[in-house]
């Protein structure tokens, strides 16, 4: 019901497409390579908002995202399934901005075929100008490893009854831009066999390079670790000094083996 109230309010306003705000994928947690994601991994798409205060008072936002499978011919793949689909607000006090309504909504989240999830916000008494350029939403999901080789896509969802992404500034509806769709091949599990392949080389070797990578990450703001499970050498859930000690002992002192992946 909430999403339909938003749509009706938006449809009663004039529509403008000039100087449109935007949503884009800023970065993805869980990438195996540029266009491949890990399976059995909580993949997170960080969605960046570009909103200028020059657009006026921000009254309403309504944006949805469609998650769906795609086969090799580009057709819809109804066999693809996922779990843990969710959308979280971050880096901006959405509830403070939207005093009338601030909600995550879904249309058919059954974790297969295609799902739609989105965010809606509205204000009636606390309308302010917003100047925001940062990640505002995080879309996350997990694909079981049985689907390796298949493709999952994320695109904007046309929300009924208006059938558009619509935001409202000072009484004028503006259609925001979107840089999608974004499609990813489902790759191997993040952590396979034994932990310790911190640099995630394709040969699954545990060597000095992994130690250098871990030290650089922990103490020198080094590159982000693709698979944090691999760097959690002792398997206790955190990446800390105990993991470093265990890896050094294993490599140079015939110490205990890194724990196995689950």
What's the topology here?
Blueprint: H1 2-11, E1 15-16, E2 22-29, E3 31-33, E4 36-39, E5 42-51, E6 57-70, E7 83-89, H2 94-97, E8 101-106, E9 114-122, E10 128-129, E11 132-142, E12 151-157, E13 166-169, E14 172-174, E15 177-178, E16 182-189, H3 208-219, H4 228-231, H5 241-252
For the biggest sheet, the summary is: 11 strands, mixed
Helicity range of the residues?
Answer: 10-25%
CATH topology of the largest domain: Immunoglobulin-like
Shape: globular
Number of helices: 5
Order of helices and strands: HEEEEEEEHEEEEEEEEEHHH
Summed over residues and divided by their number, the pLDDT gives a mean of 86
Under the CATH scheme, which class of the largest domain? Mainly Beta
Query: What's the N-to-C terminus distance?
Result: 42 Å
Uncertain residue ranges: none
Topology, number of strands: 16
Number of domains: 2
Radius of gyration: 22 Å
Strand content range: 35-45%
The helix-and-strand class reads: alpha+beta
Q: Which CATH architecture of the largest domain would you pick?
A: Sandwich
Give a structural overview.
The chain has 262 residues and is an alpha+beta fold. It has two domains: 2-189, Immunoglobulin-like, CATH 2.60.40.680; 191-256, Dockerin domain (Type 1 dockerin domain, Orthogonal Bundle). The chain has five helices and 16 strands. A hairpin with a 7-residue loop joins strand 8 (101-106) and strand 9 (114-122). The longest helix is centred in the C-terminal third of the chain and has 12 residues, at 208-219. The two termini are 42 Å apart. 32% of the residues are buried.
